């Protein structure tokens, strides 16, 4: 994966989201036809070309959201300090 230019400074410039790093609204990870984006409406979506393959279903939840891989390996989508979605790992 290649990291899109709009990513937060806390995103590692590689093909992975490392522990403790995060995606801010508008940030995306790219891999060929695939885009994994933290949308501005708080929805986290995986696209293949322009077709949404899956999402966190957290659209229109606000604008202060970010997605992170925590140090405990749990993937979490936060709105400020409230967890909206997690992988429960």
Characterise this structure.
With 89 residues, the chain is mostly beta strands. It has one domain (2-86): Agglutinin, subunit A (Orthogonal Prism), CATH 2.90.10. Helices cover 0% and strands 43% of the residues. The chain is built from no helices and nine strands. The chain has strands at 2-3, 22-23, 28-31, 34-38, 44-48, 51-55, 65-69, 75-79, 82-86. It has a five-stranded antiparallel sheet, with no helix packed on it. The chain has a four-stranded antiparallel sheet with strand order 2-7-8-9, with no helix packed on it. It is globular. Mean pLDDT is 84; it is low at 1-9. It comes from Ceratopteris richardii (Triangle waterfern).
Characteristics:
89 residues; Agglutinin, subunit A; 5-stranded antiparallel sheet; 4-stranded antiparallel sheet; 9 strands; 43% strand
The CATH level-2 architecture is identified as: Orthogonal Prism
- Content of β-strand: 35-45%
- How many strand elements? 9
Q: End-to-end distance, in Å?
A: 23 Å
Query: Over all CA atoms, what is the radius of gyration?
Result: 12 Å
């Amino acid at each position: 994966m290649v990291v899109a230019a709009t990513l937060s400074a806390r995103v590692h410039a590689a093909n992975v989201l490392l522990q403790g790093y995060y995606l801010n609204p508008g940030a995306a990870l790219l891999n060929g036809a695939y885009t994994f984006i933290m949308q501005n409406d708080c929805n986290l979506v995986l696209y293949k070309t322009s077709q949404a393959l899956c999402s966190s279903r957290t659209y229109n939840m606000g604008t202060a959201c970010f997605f992170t891989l925590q140090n405990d390996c749990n993937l979490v989508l936060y709105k400020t300090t409230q967890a909206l979605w997690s992988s429960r790992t």
